[in-house]
């Protein structure tokens, strides 16, 4: 077996898409078998959805951690560093821990390939490495986010999670998941396991019907969240308060530490999942119940990068990158613009409906200035194309800079007394994060 440095390990994983394709679930199961099934050594709450699944995982991790559980958090994508995908209650895994997990998975991969199996995909490799890492850390509860879809996702090899959670369903990755809401919902509902309760966002009737029917077929309790169950009661510049009346909660007052109203839905789903967990016949959960104070504190103290996050004073970063994400972003942007001037830093990748995104953003908010940049490697869009589209819709100055770090610095230089909103791509969120971190070194 080759000896890798941390940098070489990251480079190897990053190169995987160049020489592999999506594999059948049996390939992932074989990899996990050769690692002695690390995913069986802890409880799992499995979360799928178009938008919000990472936020729900983050809310639940915070809740369980405050109740005294040793938690793990498996999410994607990362914004700056690949290690972000593997977190425990102690924080993000170290470079040394990541390399140890990589080496164990790499050994199993080399043996698999020698035996005629397919090389794991990028996500399969990271999933296996994450499961190895979490077993080594002796976690008790893993909050596990799917990658793409659900039914065919590598994470769906988890045999019997404690709970399944399905967040909002909207159009994204239609080339893989289908071109209608029912088709996309069917892929997401593929994570539901026989007899395992599912908590789901029922705000879209078409998606809700698919999830409910799948749960009934599998004998799984279906616990729905409807928007009318959560009533917004107040805003500050960095938080939203709401009242939840659903499940075991009767007009409970909740504070979400994010400016975005869409986090009300995600926090509500997390609270319903916590309530459902309290009714499971599981000895660990019975011995250490989730109390209401733990749940409320867990929600209020949650940190989740790149989701309407105030990264600097008057600089808000959001990973909105699809139709529903932009719609939700705009609701918060419009509220901010009602009392403050706003400017924009934007980028997108070519496989998103970026022209429509730009049109909707400009129709919803008047900006003092717009700065565009290119992100996404082979999927990037030329800055002049992006700038040209903004000039069709916006009456403010539009600046175009190729380098994302330079674009962020420029947007700050022309920001004045406005609030700078950064959105359009998780790649952009990562680039802004990296630029801020480098500036602080």
Known CATH architecture of the largest domain: 3-Layer(aba) Sandwich
Q: Report the span from N to C terminus.
A: 36 Å
Unreliable stretches, pLDDT < 50, 5 or more residues? none
CATH topology of the largest domain: UDP-N-acetylmuramoyl-L-alanine:D-glutamate ligase
Tell me roughly what share of residues is in helical segments. Answer: 40-55%
How many structural domains does the protein architecture include? 2
Outline the biggest β-sheet: 8 strands, mixed
> Which class of the largest domain in CATH terms?
Alpha Beta
Structural class: alpha/beta
Number of E-type strands: 17
Radius of gyration: 22 Å
Overall pLDDT, averaged? 92
CATH superfamily of the largest domain: Mur-like, catalytic domain
Helix count, DSSP H or I runs of 4 or more residues:
16
User: What does the overall shape look like?
Assistant: globular
Q: What is the percentage of strand-forming residues?
A: 15-25%
The order of strands across the largest sheet is: 4-3-2-5-1-6-7-8
């Amino acid at each position: 077996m080759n000896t890798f440095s941390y940098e070489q390990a990251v480079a190897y994983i990053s190169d995987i898409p160049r020489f592999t394709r999506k594999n059948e679930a049996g390939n992932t199961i074989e990899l996990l078998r050769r690692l002695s099934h690390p995913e069986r050594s802890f409880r799992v709450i499995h979360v799928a959805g178009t938008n919000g699944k990472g936020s729900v995982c983050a809310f639940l991790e915070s809740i369980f951690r405050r109740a005294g559980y040793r938690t793990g958090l498996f999410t994607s994508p990362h914004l700056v560093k690949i290690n972000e995908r593997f977190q425990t209650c102690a924080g993000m895994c170290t470079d040394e821990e990541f390399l140890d997990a990589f080496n164990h998975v790499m050994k199993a991969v080399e043996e698999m390939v020698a035996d005629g199996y397919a090389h794991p995909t990028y996500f399969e490799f990271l999933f296996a490495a994450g499961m190895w890492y979490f077993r080594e850390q002796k976690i008790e509860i893993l909050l596990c986010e799917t990658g793409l879809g659900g039914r065919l996702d590598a994470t769906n090899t988890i045999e019997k999670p404690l709970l399944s959670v399905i967040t909002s369903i909207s159009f994204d990755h239609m080339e893989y998941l289908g071109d209608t809401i029912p088709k996309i919902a069917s892929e997401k509902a593929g994570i539901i396991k026989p007899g395992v309760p599912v908590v789901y966002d029922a705000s879209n009737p078409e998606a809700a019907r698919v999830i409910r029917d799948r749960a009934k077929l599998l004998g799984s309790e279906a616990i729905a969240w409807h928007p009318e169950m959560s009533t917004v009661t107040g805003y500050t510049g960095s938080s939203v308060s709401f009242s939840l009346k659903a499940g075991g909660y009767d007009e409970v007052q909740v504070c979400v530490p994010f400016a975005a109203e869409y986090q009300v839905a995600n926090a509500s789903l997390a609270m319903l999942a916590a309530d459902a967990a309290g009714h499971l016949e599981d000895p660990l959960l019975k011995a250490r119940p989730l109390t209401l104070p733990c749940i409320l504190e867990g929600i209020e103290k949650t940190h989740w990068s790149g989701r309407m996050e105030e990264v600097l004073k008057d600089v808000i970063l959001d990973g909105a990158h699809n139709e529903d994400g932009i719609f939700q972003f705009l609701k918060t942007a419009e509220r901010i613009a009602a009392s403050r001037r706003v400017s924009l830093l934007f980028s997108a990748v070519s496989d998103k409906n970026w022209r429509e995104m730009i049109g909707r953003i400009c129709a919803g908010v008047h900006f003092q200035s717009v700065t565009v940049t290119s992100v996404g490697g082979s999927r990037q869009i030329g800055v002049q194309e992006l700038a040209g589209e903004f000039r069709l819709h916006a009456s403010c100055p539009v600046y175009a800079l190729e380098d994302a770090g330079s674009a962020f610095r420029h947007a700050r230089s022309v920001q004045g007394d406005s609030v700078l909103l950064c959105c359009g791509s998780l790649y952009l969120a990562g680039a802004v994060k990296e630029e801020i971190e480098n500036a602080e070194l």
